[in-house]
Amino acid sequence: MDFTLNTEQQLLSDSVARFIQTEYDFETRAKSVGSGDQRRASRWDTFAANGWLAAAVPGDLGGWGGTAVETAVISQQLGRALFAGPWLGSAVLATQVLIASGNQALIREWLPLLCDGSRRLALAYSEQGARGIAHIVETRATKDGATHRISGRKTLVLGGLGVDAFIVSARSDGAINDRNGVGLFLVAADAAGLSMTATKLHDGTEAADLAFEEVPATVISSNAADGLDGLEYGLSHAMLALCAELVGCMERSIEITAEYLRTRKQFGVPIGSFQSLQHRMADMVAEMELARSMLFAALASFENDDVATHRRVLDGAKTLITTAARNVCGQGIQLHGGIGMTEECAIGHYFKRAVVADALFGSSSLHEAACAAALQDELRAVHA
Amino acid sequence: MDFTLNTEQQLLSDSVARFIQTEYDFETRAKSVGSGDQRRASRWDTFAANGWLAAAVPGDLGGWGGTAVETAVISQQLGRALFAGPWLGSAVLATQVLIASGNQALIREWLPLLCDGSRRLALAYSEQGARGIAHIVETRATKDGATHRISGRKTLVLGGLGVDAFIVSARSDGAINDRNGVGLFLVAADAAGLSMTATKLHDGTEAADLAFEEVPATVISSNAADGLDGLEYGLSHAMLALCAELVGCMERSIEITAEYLRTRKQFGVPIGSFQSLQHRMADMVAEMELARSMLFAALASFENDDVATHRRVLDGAKTLITTAARNVCGQGIQLHGGIGMTEECAIGHYFKRAVVADALFGSSSLHEAACAAALQDELRAVHA
Amino acid sequence: MEFRPDPELEAFRQTVRTFLREKLPVDLAHLSIGMFSPREAMSRWQAILHGQGWAAPSWPVDRGGTGWSVEQRLIFDDECSAAGTPTQDTFAQKLLGPVLNHFATPEQWQEHAPPILKGERKWCQGFSEPGAGSDLASLRTKAERRGDHYVVNGQKIWTTNAHRADWIFLLVRTDPEARKQAGISFLLVDMKTPGITVRPIWGIDGHHHLNEVFFDEVEVPAANLIGAENMGWSITKFLLNNEHAYTADLPLLKRYRGEMRRLAVTQSVGGTRLIDRPEVAHRIALFETELRAVEMMVQRTAALHGDQGHFAHAMGSMLKLRGTDLQQRMSVFMVELLGDSGAVADTQSTNDLAAEMFFRRASTIYGGSSEVQRGIVAKLMFGL
Amino acid sequence: MEFRPDPELEAFRQTVRTFLREKLPVDLAHLSIGMFSPREAMSRWQAILHGQGWAAPSWPVDRGGTGWSVEQRLIFDDECSAAGTPTQDTFAQKLLGPVLNHFATPEQWQEHAPPILKGERKWCQGFSEPGAGSDLASLRTKAERRGDHYVVNGQKIWTTNAHRADWIFLLVRTDPEARKQAGISFLLVDMKTPGITVRPIWGIDGHHHLNEVFFDEVEVPAANLIGAENMGWSITKFLLNNEHAYTADLPLLKRYRGEMRRLAVTQSVGGTRLIDRPEVAHRIALFETELRAVEMMVQRTAALHGDQGHFAHAMGSMLKLRGTDLQQRMSVFMVELLGDSGAVADTQSTNDLAAEMFFRRASTIYGGSSEVQRGIVAKLMFGL
Q: How confident is the model at residue A64 (pLDDT cuts 50, 70, 90)?
């Protein structure tokens, strides 16, 4: 293992950092989030031109040949700046699910367009009764001649505004909980019977709720197992991206807070001279470094382990890292005092992102329960 | 409600405090615990003479007519001194189970002797596979003419050394988990087929493991429901006593630690001048006062609510208070530094008592699970 | 010590409940879970209370109040919270009120108290300044005596509801030579006075509750000085020391409990209701246990009545520490229970809960931060 | 950044595993879960390692060590721990060893290093004094130069295994005039020297590991001075700054994990195995996730290699904070898993775990308390 960035990764990281520094400071972000025109502000052209959209796309598909590690490097930098554009939803989630779907024809058709930024996809998989768990699907797909028709509702479609098409999970068979029967479909954004409600998340990022009424769709993977497996594989990639983003959030929260402690005075001295606050900062940075370590463990597992193992590690990572982010950024507010509660102070926005992150891809309590169930399965199998 | 001691309670509390002060300081305790002769050191005669053994015995049965509140008042004082004698096992647990059993003949025969200290009982109810949960019983009772015969094993019989007889829970019917089929029996300490192994708990208190092989026994309550109900009622009374004892433990731990912080110097100043330690002490005392409040809530529920409700509150109290005691006394060690780790320093013994308390009458995780199950039952019933 | 419920208090509870059932207009009920009620609703509700003779639950009878004990007021609050009444004007009722009743001249009282009782005048509190947060006494807004007026210059911050208030009570520096606490006075100012500018501070909850208030040559009649010049600090200490039993905001915690229970039975994942998932039931049950302890701690503190000794004061601080911590943990978990919609900012149904959660990050900051409370407890309880 | 396992390290692991399978005598395996191995076992094991050429895993090859990288040593420790080998003499290997290799004269090295390598001489560490705990530099044990001897007078405390050690390395004050750190020297003393008295300190775990060591006119050859007179403090800083990746005691945490898993499948309540109880599986799964993060944090710290910069040092402190906290929480839960026998002190089977838990209360005290570590982190990371 090697924990330092190699030359390419360092260049990648630096290029994102430079973009943040020159074109995406906190005020710019605040304006773009407020204006409701995040897509333009997100500078998708820059993302394409710098190759970030292709960084984790396999070389034989026209990408740079990177892995989830490259995604993590970019995401961490974007997390530091609370980047509000559709990076996670489109560039990571939809792209990786498409790649993992194994549908070569669609991959060859779409991937170059996604990488050069001329087209954008989003993934519609979660539902209110699914809470981010991929195999829980009520949305139905029924075969209708050469095409399929999709009916149902999807929630939290990240980066869903302004896309060209959606990747949609839908069930052609089985009960709400069955792993069998879940396929992936491609639905044009302007398809008949599809209605979209734009939503804004707490951190200002945009998402969409979708309602499908007999919407015509192209099959990506009707093969039930493949469809769900691909979906989950892409989700794992996106969960890693989110975890990396949160590590970036924590880094920046801690930097901002440390700076505040050095400058803010009470009782005639910088409040950073109070031992209780010093120790709090120590606990925060220790929690962050533990979270970063967990991110690395999850990246390693994604790279090296079988699916069952890496999913378990990722479940744990999602819980540990979102919990750490809520703690660290929450304490960031606390150490700022009143000013930390205001919209114009950056620290509160980091906390909001951590709260949103917990709700994405399944909340902490669900992932914890999944870890516990996996442990039970393992120990029961060994000690029957 | 009234949170101040009334005149009788104050006298009771003062009399125990005086005993502790004059006859049971930490050194005396250490000697008695080390000598293995705790029974003499426990001064049972004093307990009887002062009426403590009769404090929570109903007036019509020759007692002082007090309730669990009086038990709590005494237990809290004893907890401050880490009293190591059979107060909890004999004076509270066995006595209250006997009273709750409703067997008038045995009550009339034994209670006066228990109150005047001339006889002592202990309760044998837990088993390794029961972990303090009363209705889990493997020990069997079979009818044999006019008597019963008991076979099985019991663990953690508090105050079991040197008693005259044991109250034993045993099953005449049903599977290990059934609430039906559990009765209470009286077994003479010298009964044939009964073998006893003395054990010492971490805090130096004595207990016993019992093995029964066809041991002759007198029925206390063969009526399955009555037997288990009585047992659980007496156990609730004893859980309150234990919780009160732990509040006393925390009080004294905090006093000892505060005194240490005022006197111990490092870096040329009393360590109590460090803000991080001041804040730790504040958190400790707040946790103690919350635990004391929970004790009061449990006492109130025991007095006012139906059995299902008070059991649920007591389950919560046991968890919250033992957790608080482990935290507070554990932090007491931490604030003492190295000296806190030594056998000769009192603080570590308070922590040990907290650890033992968690294992008695079912551990925290079991009680938490019971609370969760009760909540599920309640909400399912309302929102079917 | 005695835990039977007091029949008079139970009867009082019934009286309050009957009143609320009969007199609370449907359109005023359940307007928000935790935050401020609309001004209009507050005024209407205050007028109804005034009609009942319950205009000021915390004031003595001879001042137009109810003369209720702390226990009665807690019951009143509990029932109001359960019925979902609008809030009263806390600043007028609980902060300014006691000051008027204790320090005001008859003329001052006559001018200011009746409009409060009738709900015709709303107040806000001008204490904090940009440089004076936890270190309140370092405030710099100054009031210069010129003839029969004071001329006020300076800035207040974190002024809750300044934009909705008619008057403000201010701490100002009247003697710039005196050391910190010594030169401070307590002044009542009409918000319509020329020279006052209110600038909104938007909170991370997306709402506007807080403000900056600027004073530029604001002329205030000298008759609006409460008490003597430069005795403002002792008035402040009097005012802040008043309400130890209220620091935990128990009614709020109880509404959270209700909300959690509601979500647990109405929300589901994969067809399973949340309450049927062990990890959810477990978490809620733990919260409910802790809440029960806090509730009893409130009762204990209430029972200290007017006692202003060290212990009562410390109990108030400990209650704030534990109550606000519980508030934050419960509200974060509530949002987790919302599932996917927990991430969404702009749906009315869920926004309330998430905004409430974000707003409550301030609970451990305002009214004496948790760090300040720990310092107070360490000092009062241990002299550290 | 790259997370594929290193094939050379994997091969090394196999080599170690094979060696342990072939060379570890059965009667030396699994003698204790966490604490010190018996002296005799240590000596036999050290001789076996010596025969293999692995006598000193942390020493360079030209000093008789293995020259292993930190990663290799972690693998070695991991495998030794899994195989249950006796411990090596940490004081000699990791504390004194680097000092000898770096500061000793060839004569000194020749006298002291070979007996360590062969397992013939055990060492203990004489640093702490009654008045010098966290404030180590305030030590007062003095050594006066008289001819070719130093005469040592004073007292050390918390001296682990002084009663089993052959030699002690001491910090002594050689210049009473100099300020704190400046007048300290590093001295090697044979424990058989007249004037040394060892008095046992019994720990709360019921064991005797610690001692007070008294020096009364103890004559020590001047040749036993390491480095120059009065340069003891810089030697100490060198010695204490060495092993950042080891502060979390990862092998211990892994043994705890194994113990929990074992208990979860072997223990039951009411006929249900603990692993089948959701609250138990949930707790263990959370611990395992956290452990995985700690494990990766150890790897990250190891990868900093010889780096002695601020970050490496801070990582060591953060690892100690998080690792020892996890140690304590895991060991407390282990005891809870024992059920009734978790309360019992004198059964061999369970006593190990409970004693281990009590012993580990010291983990957050020795080697720089958690409070000291937080201060170090705040200073190194934020300059606070």
A: very high
CB atoms within 10 A of CB A59: 10
- Confidence grade of residue A225 (pLDDT, cut at 50, 70, 90): low
β-strands B206-221, B147-158: how paired?
antiparallel
pTM of the prediction?
A: 0.96
pLDDT digits (tens, 9 = 90+) for B207-226: 999 999 999 999 999 776 67
Provide the strand spans (E) within B105-224: 121-124, 140-144, 147-158, 165-171, 182-188, 194-200, 206-221
pLDDT digits 0-9 by tens, B110-136: 999 999 999 999 999 999 999 999 999
Q: Is A221 on the interface with D (CB under 8 A)?
A: no
Residues of D in contact with A10 (CB under 8 A): none
Nearest CA in chain A to B280: A276
CA B81 – CA A383 distance, rounded (Å)? 45
D372 at A interface, C-beta within 8 A: no
Residue ranges and CATH numbers for the domains of chain A are 7-119 (1.10.540.10), 122-225 (2.40.110.10), 229-383 (1.20.140.10)
Using only C-alpha atoms, chain A has a radius of gyration, in whole angstroms, of: 21
Domain boundaries, chain C: 7-88, 123-231, 248-382
Distance CA D167, CA D268 (A): 48
Query: Measuring CA to CA, which residue among D105, D17, D75, D21 is closest to residue D251?
Result: D75
Residues in B touching D332 (Cβ below 8 Å): 326, 355
d(Cα B243, Cα B75) in Å, to the nearest integer?
A: 9
Which residues touch B252 (CB under 8 Å, ≥6 apart)?
A: B79, B80, B81, B346, B350
Single-letter amino acid, residue B344: E
| Alpha helix positions (H), C35-126 | 39-52, 70-83, 90, 97-103, 106-118
Q: Convert the pLDDT of each residue in C21-35 to its tens digit.
A: 999 999 999 887 766
- CB contacts, 8 Å: C290 with chain B: 290, 320
Task: Give A364-383 pLDDT, tens digit per residue.
Answer: 999 999 999 999 999 999 87
- C336 and A131 within 8 Å at the Cβ level: the answer is no
C-alpha C64/C-alpha C101 separation (Å) is 10
Q: Considering only the top CATH level, what class is D248-382? A: mainly alpha
Q: Calculate how close chain D gets to A348, using CA atoms only, in Å.
A: 21
pLDDT at C52 over 60: yes
Place of tokens 């498409």: A98
CB burial of A127-162 (b: ≥16 within 10 Å; e: otherwise) equals: bbbbbbbbbbbbbbbeeeeeebbbbbbbbbbbbbbb
Task: Tell me which residue has tokens 């399912």.
Answer: B380
**Which are the catalytic amino acids of D?**
243
- Decide: D46 and D118 in contact? Cβ < 8 Å: yes
Q: What integer is the mean pLDDT of B273-299?
A: 98
Is C303:B1 a contact under the CB 8 Å cutoff?
yes
User: Is D262 near chain B, with CB under 8 Å?
Assistant: no
Cβ of B282 and C374 within 8 Å?
yes
User: Is the pLDDT at A158 greater than 70, yes or no?
Assistant: yes
Contact D209/B at CB under 8 A: no
Per-residue DSSP letters for A90-149? Answer: IIIIIHHHHHHH--HHHHHHHHHHHHTTS--EEEE---TTTTT-TT----EEEEETTEEE
B279, closest residue in chain A (CA to CA)? A276
The pLDDT score that the predictor gives to residue A40 is 64
Closest CA to D352 of D328, D331, D330: D331
Q: Residue D93 — pLDDT band, cuts 50, 70, 90?
A: very high
Architecture of the domain spanning D123-231: Beta Barrel (2.40)
Q: For residues D186 and D170, what is the distance between their CA atoms, to the nearest angstrom?
A: 6
C interface mutation test: which of B290, B304, B310 has the most C CBs within 10 A?
Answer: B290
